[in-house]
Amino acid sequence: MSSSPLHTRIWHEEAEPDNPFATRTARCHGYDVYGQMMGRARWADMVWLLLKGEAPSEAEATMLDALAVALANAGPRDPMVHAAMCGGVGGSPAAASLMAALAVGAGQSGGARDVYLCLRHWAQCSEAAPEAWAQTLAQTGQPTWLAPDDAGWPAIEHPAGFDPHGVRTATIVQQTLETLASMSPGPRLPWMRQQREALEQAAGHPLAMTGVAAAALADMGFNAQQGEMLFLLLRLPGAAAHALEQGDYGFKHFPYPAVDLLDDPLNKHQEATA
To answer: Which of 71, 144, 218, 243 could cross-link with 88 by S-S, CB 3.0 to 4.6 Å?
Structure first.
């Protein structure tokens, strides 16, 4: 039996005795993936094991499954799904549609960076009493990667995890918070369920799905980097499905209204030639 030189802390492979390019066994943090896990472990078990290096408890895997259902499809109004549908209607390859979705969904306006910043705030809360959590979560501030003399860069427009355009907390956000708080192993989601109105008053905006997702990920022990990556992964199924659907429909059934430009060059040309 020979061992492949290509192994990491996460993954260890053993090559077939007669072919060093074919895998005989593959272990993820010591677990035999194809010999023991396959057919017994859930997708949530595998993702948890890959990211955290240990198998989840039944309650932890169930909660991750519930979060995955909540995030699987944000719907056509979400910019990430819209980007994937643009790829689908234009006949782009699958990878291009997904990359478009990831590029748009990675941002700070309801995207994965919002979750990352919110998880950073939750990390700051770990040393503070719950009475101080609302103040920490409602902060905005400047991006930390800016140089001190880069004063021309706009400030962060809203606290991470809140909806800057919302009028009140969306029903699906409340339903997700209620369900996840009832199964959470940590203190953040139950606290958020109890203090939601006061928290929203401190932030000046209603709670967003990114805020609930970040609290859930923090309660499950994921750090900011892990949470940002996982949030992107969990939102891809809906983007993929809508891209495929729009590819079948074609451009004549694209559900978005035409863009009404305030400074449309075509209108200027028509006015000049009239």
So the answer is: 243
Name beta bridge partners: 25: 14
User: For 47-61, what is the mean pLDDT?
Assistant: 96
What span, in angstroms and rounded, lies between the C-alpha atoms of 244 and 48?
A: 28
With b meaning 16 or more CB within 10 Å and e meaning fewer, what string describes 137-151? bbeeeeeeeeeeeee
Quick one: CA torsion of 163, 166, 170, 174, rounded to 10 degrees?
50
pLDDT tens per residue across span 13-53 = 999 999 989 999 999 999 999 999 999 999 999 999 999 99
Nearest C-alpha neighbor of 123 from the set 234, 225, 50, 206: 225
CB of 210 closer than 8 Å to CB of 161: yes
Residue 101: C-alpha distances to residues 23, 111, 238 (Å): 33, 10, 10
* Number of neighbours of residue 130 by Cβ within 10 angstroms: 12
Q: What is the pTM of this model?
A: 0.88
Percent of the chain residues past pLDDT 70, beyond the cut: 93
- To 5 degrees, how large is the angle CA 142–CA 233–CA 115? 25
* CA dist list (Å): 183 to 67, 121, 133, 255: 11, 22, 21, 37
Question: What's the whole-number mean pLDDT along residues 173-199?
Answer: 96
CA 34 to chain CA centroid, Å, is: 28
Amino acid at residue number 27: R
